[in-house]
């Protein structure tokens, strides 16, 4: 899976829709798939990586800053066009209800952070949201918050979704990624017009408070062998301390249920007219070009406005949509763009995901977020993911 191109671009249309750790990608038509955690045991080890050492990796994770900024000269007018008839898939719990609008803003339970290990070997995070699916097990985010576009290797390691994450707390548990679905053109060519991903996740897991965890320290000549043997058991995590000593930690895990049953799931909209109002929800962090630290990434933020068409041919993107927003790029990658968001149900239709930000007027403040335009091919990728089962890991 060698990737060679960069992202870019906006375009207009009409429609709505509701609704080892890696193996080589497989493609069917426009859809590519990659397995993230190949087995229950692998998924348990991923959960242990984040829960272990008192959730040190969760708390020390930093916002992902790969391919966050689109330079001013690369954002121009232009636009997308619908490739098929408009359509919608209703949100979880909203299948038989009509949509409504509200001026008040209650934050959605569906939004959270995806965590992973970057090419630098350090823990990072992006924004993401739960979306409708047959098995209530689907997450949507930016494609380059799933695929390693920096080193051009494969999917990012230790991938999880944590809805409602706040300062190390996981109120609804940790949801380990099982299988990633993206457009073939992004998977192979890094086409920015297709920089989105839908990821199936296993049932969530929490630490079992009825059981006691423990840590073993191995210091003798057979420490490595003993630590490796213990680490093969479900719910164990091994690591080497700063003193060079091997450790094994037992983490009792309990099933937390399906993602959509716990927090709901947004619908999906495709082939929609450009120019409609949307809410954007995410966890922006990082600084503006002038050094101003406007956001901390610790709490969920929102932005509101009408989409507009744009394109960035110089970075291989000609079908993007834009939104005026002060969100900084770090942390906001993967933020959900929700059309017809209802305050009472905290549900709407996912119509985009942030893949970058731009300072379009040159005042050293980011003022625009960009997303791929969701069209019929987006729906095709979503549909493949939305009907895929995942199951439990404990």
Automatic annotation (TrEMBL):
Transmembrane segments: none annotated. SUPFAM superfamilies: Trypsin-like serine proteases. Residues 1-27 form the signal peptide. It comes from the Bacteria. Keywords: Signal. The keyword Lipid metabolism does not apply. InterPro entries: Peptidase_S1_PA (IPR009003), Peptidase_S1_PA_chymotrypsin (IPR043504). This is Peptidase. Gene3D superfamilies: Trypsin-like serine proteases. The keyword Signal applies.
